[in-house]
């Protein structure tokens, strides 16, 4: 029964919020966790929210972070963030079985989107299935994206050479501190928190694992298709990116940029993408910055020592991560010579040897598929295996998986690409009806895989161990036995994670 008309109030550290009962859950949307990052707070670290008087209506999601948007969405997901958009976007959503004192395990989900798109409000990431099926409290968060979250300003552009960057990361820290201080009132346990994310969201979880103010505030991390393999720019390199952006917008300094309406800031993105879109590389026009304060090391290193070693990790990837690029016209007629030239950028005079190895690995592979496999390994798969191997060598718990199920969409050309595991993990295919990526995936073939993954994630969130009755035995990844669960219509485990 849907009883969404009945309200429920909870006291937070900022004031009272009123949510709604929906299908057996208490749901709160659009709850502020930090001050609106507008005016003089634009391009500043997240600040505490000043609070409010009375009762805040938390029955409707807040605006999503400003981002590029086109009617009809993108050709694969059909859209990853929808209006309304606004700079005043630092809000979160909560799903809980009851706002009581049950101290349930908590999942904080961070959406991905290449650092420029996505929202906690899209149906893809609704927390109802996890809350209901796992007796969990689920939190999804919005954070600053694109230029508003990732630009770095040194003295050359009106900022300071010593101030921290990564405003997006300060948003995450503020959200995590909000959860620490408030989640008990929503029926959650602040001593049993898992952060989960996919792609850029998984990168966020990694960054939090390396952050001194955050890495003791959660206990487990689910890292789905983490883009570990993107080298991060330092301060000087980030300022070059900022200079490009300022040139496109038509201003010269941070002070001037603070006066530009956010709608105009978003209009600069097509040209930013065009300048960053180099053949054979995943287009990421803006990245986190190695500012030496909020982030001092690349992502792989952030989860391999210090307090991060005390965080249990479930890590994985899809079998054909980069195949999303296969639908782009620029890769339709990929030639062997093009791929050899791209391989030479990474492997120098060993490019032909590398190409031959990829051909042998996937008999009958076209040049396009060789390129996609190379990009998958370089940016996501190989670094993830490195993380699993190194943590295992240090005796830390780590569980590894690979998602092998191929989508029939696009005539099967995508196979098992980046992001396809999400509707299985959330077990919410009904929320993906607008996504071309999942066209043709029907019951009952998907149902067993949904149960296998969804329940494994629930088990890990609750106990730190993903095993459950509907899944073959899933051993920890160790030096002696690098066990990797291969999720498909029939899921099996392997000790050869690199084999196709």
Automatic annotation (TrEMBL):
Alphabetical keyword list: Hydrolase
Domain Carboxylesterase type B positions: 9-492
Pfam families, per the entry: COesterase
Bilayer-spanning residue ranges: none
Annotated InterPro entries: AB_hydrolase_fold, CarbesteraseB, Carboxylesterase_B_AS, Carboxylesterase_B_CS, Cholinesterase, Type-B_Carboxylest/Lipase
SUPFAM superfamilies xref list: alpha/beta-Hydrolases
EC code: 3.1.1.-
PROSITE patterns found in the cross-reference section: CARBOXYLESTERASE_B_1, CARBOXYLESTERASE_B_2
Claim: Hydrolase is one of the keywords in the record: yes
Coiled-coil stretches: none
Enzyme class, UniProt record, top EC level: hydrolase
Family: Belongs to the type-B carboxylesterase/lipase family.
Listed name of the protein: Carboxylic ester hydrolase
Lineage summary: Bacteria, Bacillati, Actinomycetota, Actinomycetes, Kitasatosporales
């Amino acid at each position: 029964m849907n009883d969404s008309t009945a309200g429920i109030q909870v006291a937070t550290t900022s004031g009272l919020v009123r949510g709604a009962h929906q299908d057996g859950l208490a749901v709160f949307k659009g709850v502020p966790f930090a001050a609106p990052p507008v005016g003089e707070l634009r391009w500043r670290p997240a600040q505490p929210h000043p609070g409010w008087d009375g009762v805040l209506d938390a029955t409707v999601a807040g605006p999503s972070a400003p981002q590029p948007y086109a009617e009809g969405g993108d050709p694969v997901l059909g859209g990853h963030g929808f209006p309304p958009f606004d700079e005043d976007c630092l809000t979160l959503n909560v799903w809980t079985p009851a706002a009581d004192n049950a101290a349930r395990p908590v999942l904080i989900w961070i959406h991905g989107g290449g650092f420029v798109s996505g929202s906690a409000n899209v149906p893809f990431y609704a927390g109802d299935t996890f809350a209901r099926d796992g007796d969990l409290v689920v939190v999804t968060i919005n954070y600053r994206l694109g230029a508003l979250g990732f630009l770095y300003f040194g003295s050359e552009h009106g900022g300071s050479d010593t101030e921290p960057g990564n405003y997006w990361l300060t948003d995450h820290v503020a959200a995590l501190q909000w959860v620490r201080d408030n989640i008990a009132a929503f029926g959650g346990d602040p001593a049993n928190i898992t952060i989960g994310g996919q792609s850029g969201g998984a990168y966020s979880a990694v960054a939090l694992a390396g952050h001194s103010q955050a890495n003791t505030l959660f206990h487990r991390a689910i890292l789905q298709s983490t883009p570990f393999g993107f080298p991060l720019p330092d301060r000087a390199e980030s300022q070059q990116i900022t200079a490009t952006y300022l040139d496109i917008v038509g201003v010269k300094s941070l002070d001037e940029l603070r006066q530009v309406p956010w709608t105009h800031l978003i209009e600069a993105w097509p040209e930013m993408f065009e300048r960053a879109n180099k053949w054979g590389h995943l287009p990421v026009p803006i990245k986190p910055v190695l500012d030496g304060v909020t982030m001092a090391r690349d992502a792989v290193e952030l989860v391999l020592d210090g307090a991060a070693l005390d965080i249990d990790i479930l890590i994985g990837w899809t079998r054909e991560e980069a195949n999303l690029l296969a639908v782009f016209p620029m890769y339709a007629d990929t030639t062997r010579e093009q791929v050899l030239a791209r391989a030479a950028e990474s492997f120098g005079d060993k490019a032909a040897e590398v190409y031959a190895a990829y051909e042998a690995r996937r008999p009958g592979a076209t040049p396009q598929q060789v390129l996609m496999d190379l990009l998958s390994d370089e940016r996501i798969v190989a670094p993830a295996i490195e993380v699993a191997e190194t943590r295992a060598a240090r005796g830390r718990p780590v569980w590894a998986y690979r998602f092998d199920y191929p989508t029939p969409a696009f005539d099967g050309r995508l196979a098992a690409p980046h992001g396809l595991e999400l509707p299985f993990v959330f077990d919410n295919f009904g929320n993906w009806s607008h996504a071309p990526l999942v066209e043709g995936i029907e019951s009952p073939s998907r149902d067993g895989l949904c149960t296998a993954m969804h329940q494994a994630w629930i088990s890990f969130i609750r106990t730190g161990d993903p095993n459950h009755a509907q899944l073959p035995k899933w051993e920890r990844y160790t030096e002696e036995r690098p066990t990797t669960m291969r999720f498909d219509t029939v899921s099996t485990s392997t000790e050869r994670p690199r084999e196709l």
